[in-house]
Amino acid sequence: MMYQSAALALLASMMPMASAHYFFDKLVVNGKASPDFIRANTRPIAYMPTKWINTFDNTTPDSTDFRCNVGATNVGAKNTAKVNAGDELAMTLGVGAKMEHPGPAQVYMSKAPTTAGAYDGSGDWFKIHQETMVNPGADPKTVAWSTWSKDRVTFTIPAGVPDGEYLVRAEHIGLHGAHGGQAEFYYGCAQVSVSGGNGSLPTADLVKIPGVYKKADPEVNFSVWSGPKTYPVNGPGPKLATFGTASVGGSEPVDAPVATPVSGTAPVSSPVSSPAPQTGSGSGNGNGEAHNAENCKGGKKTRRHARDISKN
Ligand SMILES: *[C@@H]1O[C@H](CO)[C@@H](O)[C@H](O)[C@H]1NC(C)=O
Ligand SMILES: *[C@@H]1O[C@H](CO)[C@@H](O)[C@H](O)[C@H]1NC(C)=O
After folding, report:
1. pLDDT, tens digit, for every residue of 154-179?
2. Whose CA is nearest to atom 10 of ligand 2?
3. pLDDT tens by residue, 80-102
4. Candidates 87, 161, 198: which one to mutate for ligand 2, based on the most atoms within 8 Å of Cβ?
5. Which sequence spans correspond to the domains of the chain?
6. What's the CA gap between 174 and 104, in Å, rounded?
7. Residue 233: Cβ within 10 Å count
8. In CATH, what is the architecture of 19-311?
9. Whose CA, among 1, 70, 199, 228, lies 20 to 30 Å from 52?
């Protein structure tokens, strides 16, 4: 009996760690989630994050494997998803996890020279989706972020993305330990084949991975610990990409390709669908309140985890 309850207590104390860590293991296309389009990582524990210090496996944001995760840079997924430009997709977290570390989420794409399956991600990447702090007055350790407690990053393949095969890299950054240089990066790549795009590849705001982030970037060197605050409006990395109008036949005025301001500012009409505030559960406020009770727990959890990590 004693043994059993001790074991249960131990298990309970480990659970939050597991559910607060995560990895992307499915791509949702037309409402159907499949692991076939995601490159699996080969970490001993799939949900561990990448960091600059106190790493779990010597991979850092400066490593080549920062593209698609450990072991997934040169190994293709089982399959490549056929999608249309303008489609809403999502990448979901494995083992029932939710994003219960505070921080932003972003989605990048990079066009494969041949097939997505054969591509190592060494080319240019552009950002197609950004979620940051939507409730700057709320708890920056929890509900201030649009990602808080979600099990997926939902995004739209912009209408302007030209046809071809791409890697799509979704990422969430846990900032609970970021004040001490220990931002945690969770990310993975899906393979897609895009048709119906009506623009051309972006020529600005392109990045390489690794190289997209620096330790000193204010978006990754950020403290969630001292009360409400604001977060840099573009989010980590480059601005959202804009797509050239490759074949604007005719008179239709082009009301689109303006860089979409990230959360916080009123969205302009743009092919890049913008983040959480409008999707799903309406305003961040209602959402935030609904989650408040359980967030006490979330807050503690995060704190305990941050402490655990700073001991390392
Ligand atoms: C992170 O920010 C703190 C406080 O502003 C600063 O002291 C520290 O040098 C920064 N770290 C890096 C790596 O730039
Ligand atoms: C591209 O397609 C989108 C969505 O169908 C449309 O809103 C936009 O006007 C189109 N742009 C051009 C240049 O054709």
Report:
1. 999 999 999 999 999 999 999 999 99
2. 198
3. 999 999 999 999 999 889 999 99
4. 198
5. 19-311
6. 8
7. 14
8. Distorted Sandwich (2.70)
9. 228
